[in-house]
Amino acid sequence: MEISTSVLSIKKEDAVRKFYDLEVAKTDYFHIDVMDGNFVENNNQEIMIEYATTLKHITNIGIDVHLMCNNIEHYIDEYIDLEPDSITFHIEAINNKKQAIDIINDLKSNNIKVGIAINPDTELESIFEYLPFIHKILIMTVVPGKGGQKLIESTVDKIKRLKKHLYEKNLETIIEADGGINKDNISILKEAGVDIVVAGSYIINSGNYKEAILNLKI
Fold first, then answer.
1. 169-178 burial, b for 16+ CB within 10 Å, e for fewer?
2. Which of 8, 29, 95, 214 fits a 20 to 30 Å CA distance from 198?
3. Quick one: CA torsion of 35, 38, 41, 43, rounded to 10 degrees?
């Protein structure tokens, strides 16, 4: 199980120190949650690009960009020069299949891993046709846009169904889960087939990053 730590709740004045502490604590990725004020209510574009730029200059740990945005191409253009490990966009923000394929090809041509995110109430089948062409699927286990929410239990079944589909189709697409994840529910996510978990509040508010991350790497 790999850990992608969301920096969403980190205050600007503490950012560099906390980035360093998270690296020492062995986070596998830094998770950048980009919100546009349209796809989700909150808007944090400026601080997230600042955080991602800072991380690009101070660490070699992979940057895991999650675009909770409608104008996907615009935000890809903002982040692509930072050479993140991956960029994930929401299937709900896609207008048609051609747009999705064009985005996938653009990211791949820049050696960036491609992820597609899916909200808790979106049908799993909506992403099946893209699975052979992407690196990972991000299953939202909460409603996107706010930190500190409780994991929606029905999303665990969605993860299990996705894992079964990937196995049946002999696909190597990995599964990432995001939202409300902590030491009390990490085992059910691992059993369901999750490869990477995104955790923010649980780690950042723990007081001991190393211990919190170890609790998730069971």
1. eeeebbbbbb
2. 95
3. 40
Asked whether 163 and 192 are in contact (CB, 8 A), the reply is yes
Do 141 and 178 meet the contact criterion of CB atoms below 8 Å apart?
yes
* Residues designated as active site: 33, 178
Which amino acid is present at 206? S
How many Å apart are CA 94 and CA 91, to the nearest integer? 5
Q: Is 9 left (phi over 0), alpha (psi -120 to 50) or beta?
A: alpha
DSSP β-bridge partners for residue 65: 32, 87
Superfamily of domain 2-216: Aldolase class I (3.20.20.70)
Q: Read off the pLDDT of residues 115-145 as tens digits, 9 standing for 90 and up.
A: 999 999 999 999 999 999 999 999 999 998 7
DSSP-assigned states of every residue in 146-161: -SSPPP-THHHHHHHH
Residue with tokens 């369901």: 192
Beta bridge pairs of residue 212? none
Tell me the pLDDT tens digit for each residue of 63-112: 999 999 999 999 999 999 999 999 999 999 999 999 999 999 999 999 99
